[in-house]
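Could you join me in thinking about how sequence relates to backbone shape in a protein? To get us started, please write out a protein record for me. Would you write everything just below, so we can both look at the same thing?
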Amino acid sequence: MAISTRNDHGPLSEINVTPFVDVMLVLLVIFMVTAPLIQQQVDIDLPATSSKKSVAVTEQDVVLTIDKKQQLSIAKTKVGVQDLSVKLKEVFRNKQKKEIYLRADKTVPYGFVVKVMALVKNAGIDRMGMITDQENDGG
C-alpha cells in the first residue's frame, strides 16, 4: 500500500523514478568503460594514394589486416598464414557476396602481400579491395 500525504486517501499515482535513474547511471558507466575497448584496432601505417574516389568500408564488410610484423587478422581475430584459407572459407560459407578488403602496412614486403592475396583467391573470394590513406597535396 502506498503512503499518501493527501487528505483524500486515494491511491498514489506518481511513479518513483529513482531506481530507474540508478540503473541508467550504472549502464552509462558500463558503456563508457567498454566503448574504448571495442574500438581498439591494429596500428597500421597504410600507404597513401592520390585516388579521388574512395570506397566506404562498412561494419558488415570483411577486412583482412597485415601488420608490421606480418601478422594476419580478420575482424580483429588473429589468424596464422597456414590457417588463412580455412578461416576465410568459414567466414564466407553463408555469404552471397564474396568480397574482402585488405589493409596492409606499407612496410610489409610486397612478396608477403602477394602470397596473402593468392591465399585469399584460393579460398574462393571473388573480389578484393585495397584500403589506403589519402595522399596529402602539401597545400
